[in-house]
Structure formats: C-alpha cells, structure tokens
Specification:
The structure holds two protein chains of two kinds. In chain A, about 40% of the residues lie in helices and about 10% in strands. By secondary structure, chain A is of the alpha/beta class. Chain B is α/β, with parallel strands linked by helices. Chain B is globular and about 55 Å long. Classes of the chains: A alpha/beta, B alpha/beta.
Chain lengths: ~280, ~300
C-alpha cells in the first residue's frame, strides 16, 4: 500500500474505534485514535510479516500490545486484515464476545499475547526475541507502549534487558501523546526527556511525528535495518487525534461518546467537518 | 543418622538432566543462581542460562516471551520475590495466557533461618494456589524435588514448585513413586490422618511413630501436590480416620491447610487442625531453633493430633 492508501486505512481504523466504543458504551478511544497511523503501517504497510489465513503461522512477526487498553484499534486492524468478520467488532466488551475489554490471546484470532496490566509487554517481547535468536529464526517482535506507562518500573528493567542482549529484532513503539488517565503526563509524574532516557539505556532511538505516515513508514524501515541494538520509535502523537473535542483531553482516555458526540466525531474523522 | 540434603540440590540436578535431554529448556535466574543451584546450568550449559539480574518482574515477562516462542523456561529466585513480587506478572501474563512457564521458588519456609522474615516465604502456596490453571507442588526432600521438577517439564502449562534452603532429611529414593496430583501414602493408620508437605513430611512420620507407642494410629500422607489436590485420597483417608491434621511450613491461611479444608468442607466435613505459622512473620535465628519455636516439629504435630482427637 502507498502512503495515501495507508492514510485511508488509518481513517477506517479511527471510525471503527469510535463505532466500537460507542456501541460498547465503554472503552478507551483516546489512545486508540492516537496510534491509528502506526497500527495502519504495522498491519497494512508490510511492516509485519503476517498471514491472516494462518494466524498461528510460525514465521509471522509478533506484536505485543503492552498498553492493552487500546485493544479497539488492534481489533479493528485484525478485522480489516481478515482475521475475523468486521461485524464482530460491534460486539466489543459484550458478554460472549471474542473481543474482550483488554486483549485475550485465546479469544481473538491474530492476537499474540493477552495484556492489560501495564508495564509488562516489553519483557514479553524481549523473551520472544531471545527465543527466536536462540532458535536461529528471523522473526521480528513489535511492542507498543504508552508514555504514561513509562512510569511502571518493569519497563526500565526490560529496557536494560533488551540492550544487554542486543535484541535488534525488537522494535518498541512509544505513543508519546503526553496524556494519561488522570491528566497530563508532566503534571502527574514527569517522564522528562524520554527519548534521551531510551538512548541512555542503550537503545537506537528514532523520533517522529506519529501521525505523518511517511515518517512512520520510514522509521519502521530504519528500525528493521538497524543491527546490534533494539530500536524504539518515540512517536509524538495527539491523544484522541482526529476528533476535536477528544484531542489532548484525559477525560477521553477511557470514556465512550454518546450518540450526539459519536455522530460529530464520525463527521470530523470522515472529513465532513474540520476537526 | 539420616542423610540430609538441601532440596534445592534436587532442583539443580533435575535442570541439568532436562538440559541434557532436551534443547527447548531455558533456565533463568535473578541474581541468586548460586542459592537456587541454577549456577550448575550456567557452568555446564551456558547458552541455556540467562541471569536476568535483580529484575524478578522482568524475568517472569521474559520467560513468558520465551514460552510464546516455543521454549520451556524454568525461572528461579527466592519464593518471596517470585510468587510475591512478580505475582501480577504471573497472573496476567503467565496464567491468563496459559503459558508453559515453570516457576522454581527457593528459600521456602521459616527454615531459611538467619536472613529473617523478609526472606522467609510463608505465603507463596496461597498466592500461587489461587491462580487459574497453576499447578502447585511442595515436595518433601531433594529427591522428590528432582522428580517434581522433571515432571513439570512434561506438563503443558504454568507450574510452581517450592523448596527450602536447609539440608533436610532424605526420605524418598529414586524408586519412590511420584505422580503430580497423587498424594503419596507414607504410613497407614486408622485414628487420624496427617497431611503434610515439604520437610514436614519427615516430622509427620516421626510424630506418627511416637503416637504409635501410645496406641494412636496415624495415617501419614505426603501431599506434595497442593493443586490439583488429590481429593480422592484425602476424603478416603478421613472417612476412615474421622479427623485430620495438616502440617506445612507456611501461613495457616490459604496454604495446604486451606486446600485440605476446602476439600473436606465440600466432600466430607470432619475435625481438622493445622500445624502452620499462625498469622505472623518469622524472624532471624538458627533454622532448627525457629522450627521448634514455631512448633513446626513432630512435637507440634502431636499436640495438634491430641487436640483433633478430642473433637472427634
């Protein structure tokens, strides 16, 4: 897919997320909207090697969603990729749904790992990466974290592990939207110059605008080519991106739009009115 | 004089056997490899060993990733820092994903001794037992620890084995049967059932011998698998004897006593007493002195047998 087509995928992911969360009456739209371009690139830009017809294919790359609450954007990507029917998206969070509020590997085709308790994903990604290297396999491992999540101590343990073992088959993506549930990250507990901190912990750091599809694709290409160190994409993003009243507002971290808000949000994402 | 060997030696031996036998086993430790005996793997199979440093939560996550890649990781540190500190990682990453991660909890119980309360795991059985799909084993000696560790490699799913620091009596040999989920009958009796785990199995046998001299016939079980518990054996024994005592180096709440209580309440309610640590922390001291002070001895078991017989 070219950049224009990927941008269109990102738009679809955003409308899916809004519809899913609206129908569910709960969920996390903010961080899902924040990551739409990155997820579009991962699943539709040939960044990850995947086979939707064979979800358990041994040669696939792996994706660990450390910030498990943005499950909606991943579910949307999996459905649009063909892992399960798009209609299932509208069952999110309902009793008996294959789409749990936070990712559950055994419920949803295409998920590589359950997650939802923050801070744990990077360790899992490292273990996969070590396992692949031990077995002489070339699979790559992608791990998505939030910037608020950097307040979890385990992330820093895992950063050291990845660097120590020179896991160049690990690519972390940090959603740097500067908003967490209770407020702005610098106000709650400042993470400071986070790119410098990743660098100091031994990582290859790529800083980018996470909503610029060309930059996103270029960053993934650079990460795959880099040898000897793990790479992190510090993706500067806007939480709630694309919906004017959700952008940069912590109250939309984990709240569902009502009918009126939903209709307004859909018009904005579809470009019928300016965001 | 009975031979005494630290149970952790059995863990280390089993890991050496596993690494020699299969190429999908990995061994991880969190900077206590000499204590847990995983240093033996580091020396003999260096490419199968990773020292994760002092990062227990990261170790559990890394092991989970290894399991997702198709390998079988055995991870070890002191029980307190494994079952306690990394509990959420074990719950949400290992168990919720049903991952094939094997947990080796060292320094179980108050017999850790001089290091004191911070390092004496008395809550780990309870913490691990509540997790969906987790197998929990508390073997009685070094040889049974070896067998339990080997058996864990054959189970598809999360398993936890706890073992102590001190040299404890070797009461089984390589021919003694061991099967996960099957209580081992140590001594038949008719007046009271004693269900013990860990080094308390030896104490229970000693207690039964003393009680026999007074004409009290105690049936002793090595209830090494606390989850899944051997309901059939527990219920059949108590139907015969009419009462029971549990004995463990663990808190009264939630451990072996908790498991046997649940089993009897649901199937055959009967008087039950517990030899355990009663809702308090341990302290520094010589292991033997501590076991005496906290009544984790044959004498402590006899005391509870007398109490439970009065309730029959």
């Amino acid at each position: 897919m070219n950049v224009k087509e990927l941008q269109e995928v990102a738009r679809t992911l955003r409308t899916d997320v809004l519809t899913m969360v609206h129908k569910a009456g709960s969920g996390h739209p903010g961080g899902s909207l924040s990551m739409a371009e990155v997820v579009a690139a991962l699943y539709f830009g040939d960044v990850m090697k995947l086979d939707p017809k064979n979800p358990d294919w041994d040669g696939r790359d792996r994706f660990i969603l450390s910030k498990g609450h943005v499950a909606p954007v991943i579910y949307s990507a999996l459905a649009r990729k063909g892992y399960f029917p798009v209609e299932e998206l509208w069952t999110l969070r309902k009793l008996g749904s294959s789409l749990q509020g936070h990712p559950h590997k055994d419920s949803t085709p295409g998920l590589d790992c359950s997650s939802g308790s923050l801070g744990q994903g990077l360790s899992i990604a490292n273990g996969l990466a070590i396992g692949f290297k031990k077995q002489g396999k070339s699979n790559r491992v992608y791990c998505m974290l939030g910037d608020g999540e950097m307040q979890e101590g385990q992330v820093w343990e895992a950063m050291m592990t990845a660097a120590h073992h020179k896991l160049d088959n690990v690519c972390a993506i940090m959603d740097h939207n500067l908003v967490q549930l209770d407020g702005n990250v610098p106000d709650i507990k400042d993470i400071g110059d986070i790119a410098a901190k990743w660098h100091d912990f031994g990582w290859n750091v790529i800083q980018l605008d996470g909503h610029d599809m060309e930059q996103v694709m270029a960053a993934f290409r650079l990460a795959a080519a880099y040898k000897g160190k793990p790479t992190v994409l510090v993706a500067r993003c806007i939480k709630g991106k694309g919906v004017s009243f959700m952008e940069n507002d912590c109250n939309w971290h984990g709240a569902a739009p009502n009918k009126e808000q939903y209709e307004q949000a859909m018009r904005e994402v579809n470009g019928e009115v300016s965001a | 004089m009975i031979e005494k060997v630290p149970m952790r030696d059995g863990y280390g031996k089993a890991l050496l056997e596993l690494c020699a036998k299969r190429d999908d086993v990995m061994v991880l430790d969190a900077d206590v490899a000499k204590s847990t005996r995983t240093v033996w793997i580091k020396d003999k199979f260096p490419d199968r060993f990773i020292d994760m440093g002092i990062s227990e939560q990261d170790m559990v996550g890394t092991a989970s990733g290894l399991a997702l890649s198709g390998m079988i990781p055995f991870i070890s540190t002191y029980c307190v820092f494994l079952a306690g500190r990394a509990w959420d990682q074990i719950r949400t990453t290992v168990c919720y994903n049903k991952l094939n991660v094997k947990l080796g909890g060292a320094h179980a119980g108050i017999s850790v001794g001089p290091d004191g309360a911070t390092h004496q795991a008395l809550e780990d059985i309870a913490l691990m037992r509540v997790l969906p799909g987790m197998t929990v084993i508390a073997p009685c000696d070094a040889e049974e620890t070896r067998k339990a560790t080997l058996a864990m490699a054959e189970i598809d799913g999360p398993c936890f084995v706890r073992f102590g620091r001190e040299a404890v009596p070797v009461v089984t040999d390589e021919n003694t049967p061991f099967e996960v989920g099957k209580a081992r009958l140590v001594r038949e009796g008719s007046d009271v059932s004693i269900f013990a785990c860990g080094p308390m199995v030896y104490e229970a046998t000693a207690a039964a011998e003393q009680l026999a001299q007074e004409g009290i016939s105690a049936e002793v079980f090595d209830l090494h698998t606390i989850k899944p518990i051997d309901t059939e054996a527990v219920v059949a024994s108590v139907k015969k004897t009419g009462c029971a005592v549990t004995a463990e180096e663990h808190q009264y709440y939630g451990g072996l006593h908790g498991a046997v209580s649940e089993c009897l309440t649901a199937n055959y309610p009967a008087p039950l007493e517990a030899v355990a640590v009663y809702d308090r922390f341990g302290e520094s001291g010589d292991p033997g002195e501590l076991m005496k002070k906290y009544k984790l001895t044959a004498e402590g078991i006899i005391e509870k047998v007398r109490a439970v017989l009065k309730r029959k």
